[in-house]
Structure formats: structure tokens, C-alpha cells
Amino acid sequence: MRRRSAPCPPAAATWSRRLLSCESPSGAMKAVLLKVAGKEKEKEKEKQFLEVWYQNRKVKSIDLTALDKHGSVYDDNQFGCLAWSHSETHLLYVAEKKRPKAESFFQTKAPELDCSADEELECPKKPDAPIKGEQFVYHEDWGETLSTRSVPVLCVLDIEGSSISVLEGVPKHVSPGQAFWSPDDTGVVFVGRWHEPFRLGLRHCNNRRSALFYVDLTGGKCELLSEDTGALWSPRLSPDRCHIAYLENRVLGPHQQCSRLRMYNWHTKQTRTVLEVVPRQVWGAFPGIYCSALPRLCWAADSRRLVLDTSQRSQQDVFVVDMQTGSTTSLTADAPQGSWSVLTIDRDLLVAQFSTPSCPATLQVAVLPGVGQEAQIKWICLQNAPPVPGISWGIRTLKPPPEQENPQYEGLDFDAILLRPSEGPTAQKPPLVVMPHGGPHTVFSAGWMLYPATLCRLGFAVLLVNYRGSLGFGQDSVNSLPGNVGTQDVRDVQLCVERVLQEEQLDASRVALVGGSHGGFLACHLIGQFPDTYRACVVRNPVVNIASMLTITDIPDWCLTEVGVPYVPNALPDPAHLTVMLQKSPMSYINQVRTPVLLMLGEDDKRVPPAQGLEYYRALKARGVPTRLLWYPKNNHALAGIEAEADSFMNIVLWLLQHLQG
Fold first, then answer.
1. What pTM was estimated for this model as a whole?
2. What is the per-residue pLDDT for 6?
3. Which of 36, 250, 408, 477 is the most buried (most CB within 10 A)?
């Protein structure tokens, strides 16, 4: 390929942000996608540039916005990709389909030639002519954090010619994403997600119907590579270009599950299951796969083994999988207790990060040993981060009493991670902050978490509860919770709190709750069901009334699934089901609440819309319960904006200090 220099993004830009980047197969070139904003006073719209670098020198800058072939490029994890062809001449990415311009019926303009005013609506339109009457058409989106994503298209950029082709042939009933080049560059492999009868929220929802497809670049023919009855994602091509590994869940049901690892053979066109779902977690055995995605580079150089990280109860560990035999080996079995995450593997050089609740992440590297010798791996720490002083922590396992056993899934246990101050005056027992996680099918891993660590340094003990239904404890644990929310999970948290208060030197008169989403659901339940235990409560975007959330959330299937009712898209709301939803919601215990509550709501939350928090706020105010509401504009479910995160944390601390005074 001929190397040519190109102009930089316009000097008028006030800032730029890197969205995606990827190296070419040879490692010589790198592609970088940038978003550039113009000066605010000039009201320039954001532009997107794709830069090509060769040996640390920028050789090309392509203004994707000026080419006007599509809308914004996707940089999310659900659809987004940026992939070099094996020949290193083309780049593949996903973008929003170009939407025709629309205008009002009453937009005034000069009449078209050869058309009378009366015939204007019937005249043939120019390709880019605005369409009348389409100005206010509703366009579905993919929910929380994906509100600008509606109709994704596969795009191919010719590096030399600076031209873009939007691929044809994708079936109309699916939305393409997570794409990469086929082994011979003759086509593109992608994950197609069903969007009929309508789109549901996709973020943190690995249970949406999807399949693996191949579209031929020459004839536009599209071929189904996998079964089309599951929910698959995260396809990864092996270095020898012979196999595609991917993760698969069952459709609907819990949003997060124990996943299957499957492998498609490009030459034989056969798919087989490498690792199955694990019903129960057994010490010393492979725990199952619980991860949001496989690492982008996860294959060993031999194209036989694959590296991934997964939750193992309240820890996260790294495993290598022999894709031929299905055998697994822990690469962190002899490492300290904590949380490990794979960052990448390149020609068997493995890069990972390790952290604990008292120590921020450190970078770790190792060379992956040969087949059968993986347990001999030696990790080298590239940066020594000393533990944060004044924090001690441990993991405890609890088993529910017989009367709280789930009759369908007996014998399940659960964990909790306790952080407590190890410095300061010993005469005074520290107060306890209880933090149940959201989801509900997620998990607290024994890794670095800023909020718990900071609260601990401020003198609070912090209890992180992985109640039954959390990931990492087997699929039986996940399955035990739907139909039992508001009881099983609430009792697990309360049991853990009572046990810790009995066994640890903590102040039982100063206990508070902090939770978000389903963690907020549990916090609101606990102050209603056990009002004498808690002195303060802080909730972020909490679920308080599943019945009223059903028709306004991007995940209506969650509302039904978690109360034990199958989700059917065309079913009418059943009064009996709505009654069950209310009975399992914190609002049913509102009359018993006396604990002061701080509510923090994101104005743009599509997952748990702020109407939920407002409903609880008004109910508390009507009953004279001390409450305060913080409203964060331009923030969604995570409240992850810089101002919102800083302000919310300060308010959390001040609320706890105010209500947990000795």
C-alpha cells in the first residue's frame, strides 16, 4: 500500500476523543477512530475521523463524516468493532444506517421543476431530498447507554481509495455487530441480533436472541453459521483462521447466566460445545463461565488453547481452556486471593491485572507454558502497588437456615466480603455499611472497588453481600432467585448482617444500607422488612415497584422473569401478575419504613427510569420519613458522569456521617 500523509482534523476542534483502535495483523499499522468537536460558538457538529498510523507515524486521516455514507460509528461493546482485513487494505466497522432527511409538511421551499404545488408530494424525490411527514417518526433504540443506536450497518473502508461501502445482504430481521473478516477476506462474519417484534435493552443482557452469520462480499449472499435459537456473542477467530470461539446463553430467562463455550470449524462447518453450563460450583473444579465477553485477543499461538477470566464465587480467576479436549487449568491457583482479569495474549505473552479490596490493580505478565504444563506458569508483577493502609478484609461463606432453603435448589450457600478499618481508635466499634449488589445476577469480586475502600478509610466497616442468585456459584444459584426476589435475596442479606454483627466487633446500633438498581431494591426492602436494624439508607436509581416499572423500562422481560412469570412480548398485562409484582416490591412495605433515605436519580436512566425513585420519594414524604432526593441531568443508570459521581459520593458520605453519629 502506498503511504501518503494526510491533513490533521480541523484546527477549529476544541477536543478529540479516541473511541476505538486496532492493530493490523502484521502489527505494523494501527487504526484509530477519533471523535472531534468544533468550537461551541461556531456550532460545528461533531465529526468522526479514522486515522491510519504506520510505525508511529500518521500516514492517513479520513473524515468519515464528510464522506456521508452512514451515521455515527458504533464504539460500544454490544455492536462496535474495528477490524483490519488480513491483507491490511481495508477496515471493517459498524455504524448507524444513514437516515433520510425529514421535514415538516409545511416546510416552505421553491417548487420542483415540472411539478405543480399540488403535485409536489407525488413528485420523484432526489436521493437526498427531505421526506415530508417523517419528521417525528419514532425510531426504536437498544436501551440503556444505547439510545443513539437503532439500525446498525456493516461498513468497509478502502484505505487506499478512502471510499466506504455499506454491505448489503444482512437479513432484515437482525441487527449486525461484533464483526470481523472471514479467513480468506472474501466476506464478513458477524453476530446478528433479532430486533423483532421490537428492540429490548441490550446492555448487560446476554440473553437476547442472536446467531452467527457470514455475508459474502462478492454476491451479497448471507449464510447462517450457528443455530438460531440461542443468545451468542463475543466471537473470536483463532490465529490459524480455522476456528471461531464464542459464548452462548439460553434466550430470555436471567439476563446474566453461566455460559457455554462453543467452537465453529470454518472448514468442516461443524459446531461443538467445548464447555457446558456448570450447575453447582465445586471447590477445585472449573466454576463455569461468567464473563461479559472474551478478551479481544484470547487465543494462544498454537490455535488450540484459549484464555479467559471468570468469577469463582467471590473471586475472579484466569483459566486456560484446551479447545480440543475441553480440559481447563487455572493459571492463578497459586496466586494470592483476589481478582484477576485477562487484558490480552499476544504470541503466548499473557497480560493480566490483579487487585484486592485493599490494593489497586497491578499489571502482571507471564509466558503461557506449553500444553499440559500450564500450571507451572510464573507471573511477574510489572508495578508494585502497596496495599492501602488501614484496610483489612476477608471472605466468609454462609448457609441459610433450613426454613430459608429453596426447596427446588437445596444446599446452596453464598458469600460476603467484609472490609473493616484496621487503624484508628480501638475503643469505639466502627459502624457498618451494607452494600448488596445490583443485577441481581452479578457478583462482587474480591478486587479493588473505590467506594468500599474509601468508606473503610473513613472509619466504616463495609459488607458486600453475594446473596443466592449471584454469578460464580453455579447455574442452580442463578436459577434459584427468579420468583423469589424480595424474599430469598432479602433474607440472605439480613442473615449476613445479623451474623456479622454477632461475630465481629461492630456497632450494631449504627448500620446503614447503600445500594443501586437491584441493590437499591434490596436496600428499600430491608428498611421496610427490618426497620429496627438500619439507621440510614442511600439508594441510586432503585427498583421500588416492579408493576409500575413494567411498561417504562427498556427491560420489561426482567420485570416478569424475576417475579417468576415467563416473558411473552405480545401478552397483555395480567392483573394477577401485576399484583405479584407489587407484593414482591419494596413499595408493599412502605408503611413500615422509618429510616432516613437519600435517593440519587439519573434523569436519562432507561433501565430503571427516575419515575421509580420519584414514586418512593413521594411515598416517604407523605409518611413523614426524612428523605432527600438528588437529581442528575444528562446521567443514565450508572450515574457515571464526572460531576454526578463526585457529587453523589460526597453526599453519600455526608448522609452516613449525619445519621450514624455515635
1. 0.93
2. 45
3. 477
